[in-house]
Amino acid sequence: MEKVGFIFDLDGVIVDTAKYHYLAWRKLANELGFEFSEEQNELFKGVSRKRCLEILLDIGEINATQEQFDSWMIGKNLDYLAYIEKMDANEILPDVPRVLDFLKKKNVPIALGSASKNARPILEKVNLISYFDSIVDGNSVTKAKPDPEVFLIAANNLGVNASSCVVFEDAVAGIQAANRAKMTSVGIGESNILDEAAYNFKDFTEISNSFLEFLLNNNQNK
Ligand code: BG6
Ligand code: MG
Prior knowledge:
With 222 residues, this protein is of the alpha/beta class. Helix content is 43%, strand content 11%. The structure holds 6-O-phosphono-beta-D-glucopyranose (BG6) and magnesium ion.
């Protein structure tokens, strides 16, 4: 029987950091003289920091020199870091610890597959880092989601076949990356947005231990 691996995205799946990314991008937009809405922030989910700034500047119709681009990217991250500095275990999304505990007790290998370069400090702050056998983040990849690279590296690190992995994602690009890697994609969030996922749930409170068991058995037999 194949070994099964579970891979979790970070932002919007384990912790609700999308709000902090939003506040930091909105501050920059306002400084540059334009508005940035929460709806527009949807486009930023799962997207690398550099690509987010490119999209933001398109929205504001701003042409930047390389120097300005670099300094705005650094400034946004400093603002974001100031927000996450205060994070603690209270900001873990509902039922995430129950799911991680369930998998850990069954010795299922667990990886993080995130576009964020801040993944490690966040996992440390919320005290979940010890659950992860491998952490693949924005520092380890060359190609952004929807490219499957991040998840393929995670599967390789876990020593599990890609087709025997389950991925939890809140971003359209992340679901597409998981599907391209031939993994089982589970959407966390709005099912109408994440309609390419194999399964959809509002959050982990809707994912029972018996469904996790089903995912384990289903992927074992692949
Ligand atoms: C993703 C977020 O997880 O990480 C994106 O969904 C974010 O919104 C990206 O832009 C990069 O994050 P960071 O922490 O490296 O700026
Ligand atoms: Mg995400």
